[in-house]
Amino acid sequence: MKEAYAELEHSLHTALETYSNVHRGSGHNSLVSTHLYEQVREIVIEHLGLDKSQYTVVFCTPRRAEQLSAQLKSKRCHILSSQDIELPLGLRAVAVPRAVLPGGAPFQPGGGTARLVFPNYVIWARGADKYEAGTPAIVNVVALARALRLIRQFGPDAFQNAEADTLSAADILYHDALEPYAGRELLEKLRHTLIGQRVPVPTLTGDKPYINLDNAASTPTFAPIWQAVCQAWRRPQAVQRAIVPEVKSICAAMLNAPPAAYDVIFTTNTTEAINLVTDSLRRETRRGPKPLVINTILEHNSNELPWRSLPGATLIRLPVDAEGFVDLNQLETYLRAAARKPRLKLVAISGASNVLGVYNDLTEISNIAHRHGARLLVDAAQLVAHRKIDMDACGVDYLAFSAHKAYAPFGTGVLVVRKGLLAFDPVERVQIEASGEENVGGIAALGKALVLLQRVGLDVIQQEEQALTARALHGLARIPGLTIFGLTPDSPRFDRKGAVIVFRMVGKMANRVARELAERGGIGARYGCHCAHLLIKSLLQIPPWQALLQGMIVSLFPQVSLPGLTRISLGIQNTAEEIDTLLGILDAIARQPHGDDNPFASAQTDIQRKMADFVRATGWRVYPQH
């Protein structure tokens, strides 16, 4: 029904105008997205006629839903499928009695599942968060909730009638209004289609256009990508089925992963993709020698915690130097020592750090790994949208990334794997692929985003981001009391620095700095440990006794904020003017008087109220009551 689709798309466009990653963000967009996401739990429980004081909801892929249900072994679980409402979202909402959620480690660990991580143990998150590994499909979850209310308005068949026209998968993925443009000209045109561009948000000095400097957490999207999602949702199943292999071809071409040598498998995010590899290795090593996994302290939890769950595995973490680069000599030493006894060896490394922004030398790492019979897995979540990747030339065996970090935040992730390396039986393999391929809209968004990035050119993107990063770092270095971690523009390796910067300010907790950026400048940033706890502890030189004390505090007082770093991260939509605004606000924060002499102190309660009003008002627009 066209009316239902039109209302759904209008609501989701509103949600996309203020989209960001949920939780742990300080900016207006993160607050709004968290509010919209958490509201869906209540909407689903209400739809199912359950008691919200007794139930919570876990959002996951079809395969994760089956695994969770099997683990709980409870007939009291209720599963709501996006298939039930004829929307190809690839989503399951599992309503679970709060009392039956098990303690201990989740069956899929990774980003967001841990409250605090130590070298040898983990304090896990509580409630539903522990079972939503990695960034959830936020926009798809919001779409599910809005669709449930539209079904009450338009009836159960509201989304069953697809549009029968001649629009093909190729039309959706390759053709758009910006087709005549390429390179920097396309980049400039694309920036003008940013959804949410210059949305006014309340600050201490009045409404200002929102500035998104939280791109490493999740990226916004652009009109041609959103259009591809809407077109995919409305197409007949034959067209939807044709989108999936075409996007696999787009991924393979962009990554130089020849289809004769590699398989492309869709998941929901990077975390799920890496957990697939862990599950495969668990099967492969069940009766053979136990595996050796060589990791680094750079890693995001998504490329660290899953390896801890691998039975019998030996996990070695490589150190990094002051700029964040892996010690290649140490890697060679560990692998040479491992050759003394037969075992499966895996080097699992981030292609780009989400904290220090460094790009390690994947070609050299691959050469060392393969020289000693090891496989190479690359966490490319922070890499795909920023630098060229040549899997075949580098000899990468597994590569995982998420569309939501490549301007397509609609719940799709990717695992590109060398043929023959996944140890699942044929039935399991079909289930795995079907689970990821159900999210046709997310797959179409990913394909469209990669096509646009290729038309702009990764070399152009690299030049633009490096220029902005250098501008930011030069300015930050002049702010009193501010310490920058990692590469600086005067380093001979600066060409291997990504658009991610972490810093701290004397006398201010990271969460306070990030909050003031939002309150003063309408700037979205992120704070804390950034799901890279081991690295942050190392950068802050937190001794073991203090880390142990932090663990005790978190266990007793979960809401307490611990030391961390403030992070800004850039995307292709950011400008020099936005960097200058950031620098001006940070300089003002650094120089402001303390206590009663702070001219903004009395106004902070008022701006917090206005920000809360902004969040609620957006919620009402996305979920209007009829």
Q: Describe it for me?
A:
The model has no long low-confidence stretch (mean pLDDT 93). Helix 1 (2-17) packs antiparallel against helix 21 (604-622), helix 8 packs parallel to helix 15 and helix 16 runs parallel beside helix 20. The two termini are 18 Å apart. The chain has 626 residues and is α/β, with parallel strands linked by helices. Helix content is 43%, strand content 14%. The strands form 6 sheets. Strands 9-15-14-13-12-10-11 form a 7-stranded mixed sheet, with helices on both faces. A 4-stranded antiparallel sheet has the order 16-17-20-19. The protein folds into 3 domains: 2-163, Type I PLP-dependent aspartate aminotransferase-like (Major domain) (Aspartate Aminotransferase, domain 2, 3-Layer(aba) Sandwich); 261-438, Type I PLP-dependent aspartate aminotransferase-like (Major domain) (Aspartate Aminotransferase, domain 2); 458-618, Aspartate Aminotransferase, domain 1 (Alpha-Beta Complex), CATH 3.90.1150.
Which properties best describe this structure?
globular; 4-stranded antiparallel beta sheet; 3 domains; 14% strand; alpha/beta; Aspartate Aminotransferase, domain 2; 20 strands; 7-stranded mixed beta sheet; Aspartate Aminotransferase, domain 1; 626 residues
Q: Would you kindly provide a brief summary of this structure?
A:
With 626 residues, the chain is an alpha/beta fold. The chain has three domains: 2-163, Aspartate Aminotransferase, domain 2; 261-438, Type I PLP-dependent aspartate aminotransferase-like (Major domain) (Aspartate Aminotransferase, domain 2), CATH 3.40.640; 458-618, Aspartate Aminotransferase, domain 1 (Alpha-Beta Complex).
